[in-house]
Amino acid sequence: MSLDDVLGLFNYWMVIVLMMTGLYIVVSRGNLVKKIVGLNIFQTSVFLLYISMGKVSGGTAPILTGKPEVYSNPLPHVLILTAIVVGVATTALGLALVVRIKNAYGSIEEDEIQTMDLVAESEAETTGHRR
Amino acid sequence: MIDTTINFALLLFLAATAFSILRRTTLFSVVMLSGVFSFVSALLLVHLDAVDVAFTEAAVGAGISTVLMLSTLALTARHEAPASRSRALPLIVVFLTGLALIYGTLDMPHFGDPSAPVHTHVAPRYITATATEIGIPNIVTAVLASYRGFDTLGETTVIFTAGIGVLLLLAGTIREPTGLRITAMDHHLVLRVVTKVLIGPILLFALYVQFHGDYGPGGGFQAGVIFAAAFIIYALVFGLEAARRAVPGRAVRWILAAGVLMYGGVGVVSFFFGKNYLDYSALGATATAGQHLGILLVEFGVGMTVSAVMVSTYYAFAGQNRPIGDEEW
Q: Hey, of B69, B72, B307, which one would you mutate to test binding to chain A, going by the most A CBs within 10 A of its CB?
C-alpha cells in the first residue's frame, strides 16, 4: 500500500471511524437521548461517505454556469439532501418516544426501564394475572 | 494541497467532536457538541461541493435538531447515569465491524477520481441534459423535483408521517393554552431586541431560498426548515402562547397536509394533459416553461410540509407539562 492509496482512501477511513463511534455510543450507552445522538453521528457519517464518493478532483458545485466546467456528481447530493430532512423528522419521532417513556417509567435509562419491566412481569406471574 | 489539508483537518475535528460526545455524561454538553458536529460536517460538505446538502445540514442539524433535543432534556433528564455493565463486548464488536468495513474500502476508487464508476454511469446524462430538458441551472434541484419527483414525493410523505407520529405521541399530554404568558425570557432584553430584528430577515431569506432554488443552492427542504426556525426562535424568546397566537397549531396542521396535497395534486394535473404522473412538461407553453412551473409548485409544497412539521413538532415538545425554565440550566 502506497502513500497514494492512503491519501486516496483516508476520507473513507475517517468516515468509518465516525460511523463506529456512533455505533459504539448506541450499543454501549443506556441513556436514550445519548443513543439518539449516537444514531445522528452514525447517520451524518453515512452522508459524508456518499458525498465523498460524489466529489470529483478539481470539480465544482453542480450548478450550471454556462461555461464548460467539471462538476461534482449531483446524484449523491440529491439523495442525501432529502435524507437529512427525513432524518430530523425521524429524530423528532424518536425524541417524542423518549418523552413518553419518561412519562410512563420516570426514567430514560435503558437498564432501569428493563428492571422495572422484569419486576412488573414477575409480580404479574405471582398474582396469577397474565399481562 | 490546501484542499487536502482542509479536508483532513475538518475530518479530524469531526472525529474529536464525536469522541468528546462519547465521553461526556452531561447531556447538555452532549447536545451542544452534536450541534457542533453538524456544523463542522456542513463545512466539510461545502468543501466537497455539496452546497445544497451543506445548507440543509446547517439549518437542520445545528438548528432544529439541537432545539428539539434541548426540549427533550427539559422534559427528561440532564445527566447520563454511570455505566452499570461492562463495555468490553460492544468495543470488540465495533472494532471488528470497523476493520471489516476498512477492508471493504481497499478496493474502492480513490477519493476524487473522475473515472470512478459512480461518475461514468448515469450522472453525465443529468449534467448534460438538464440545461435543455429542464432549463434550470441547479442540477440538484432538477433531479430532486423533476427527474426524481416520485422519490421526493415519497420522502415528503415520510416527513409528513413522522410529523403526524410526533403529534399522536405527544398530543395526549399537551398542556391546554392557559392564557398565561410564560415569562421565562422577559428579563433578557438583548435577546428580545435581537430576536425582533432577526425574525424579518430570516423569513425573507427563507422565501429567497424557496424561490431561488432553481438558480442557486436552496429549495423547499432548506426553505421550510429556515422558515420554521423563525417561528421557533419567536416561541423560544416570547413564549409558546405568543407564538400560538401568531400561528395557531390548527393552522400549522392544515399547512402540514396541504403541502403534501399540493405536491400530489401537481402530479394529478399532469394526468389531465395526457402526460405521466409528475411530468410537468405539459403545464406551460413550452416543455421547459412547464418544468419551471412544476418545480416551483412542488418545491412550494415541500416547503409547506417541512416547515409545518418542524413548527408543530416544536409546539408539541414545548407544550408539554414542564415549561423550560432558563434558570434551571
A: B72
Query: Using a CB-CB distance cutoff of 8 angstroms, which residues of chain A are in contact with residue B219?
Result: 81
Q: Which residue of A has its CA nearest to B165?
A: A93
Of A7, A23, A99, the CB nearest to B94: A23
Interface confidence, given as ipTM, is 0.91
Query: How confident is the model at residue B104, as a pLDDT?
Result: 92
Domain extent listing, chain A: 3-126
Tell me if chain A has a CB within 8 Å of the CB of B194. no
Confidence of residue B189 (pLDDT cuts 50, 70, 90): confident
Q: With an 8 Å Cβ cutoff, are B65 and A24 in contact?
A: no
pLDDT for residue B322 is more than 90: no
- HEC secondary structure over chain B: CHHHHHHHHHHHHHHHHHHHHHHCCEHHHHHHHHHHHHHHHHHHHHHCCCHHHHHHHHHHHHHHHHHHHHHHHHHCCCECCCCCCCCHHHHHHHHHHHHHHHHHHCCCCCCECCCCHHHHCCHHHHHHHHHHHCCCCEHHHHHHHHHCHHHHHHHHHHHHHHHHHHHHHHHCCCCCCCCCCCCCCCCCHHHHHHHHHHHHHHHHHHHHHHHCCCCCCCCHHHHHHHHHHHHHHHHHHHCHHHHHHHCCHHHHHHHHHHHHHHHHHHHHHHHHCCCCCCCHHHCCCCHHHHHHHHHHHHHHHHHHHHHHHHHHHHHHHHCCCCCCCHHHC
The model's pTM: 0.90
Report CB contact under 8 Å: B12, A47.
Answer: no
Chain segment B199-249, per-residue pLDDT in tens: 999 999 999 999 998 888 888 999 999 999 999 999 988 888 889 999 998
The residues spanned by each domain of chain B are 1-121, 137-329
pLDDT, one tens digit per residue, over B14-38 is 999 999 999 998 999 999 999 999 9
The architecture CATH gives domain A3-126: Orthogonal Bundle (1.10)
CB–CB contact B76 A92 (8 Å):
no
Across the A/B interface, how many CB contacts are shorter than 8 Å?
A: 300
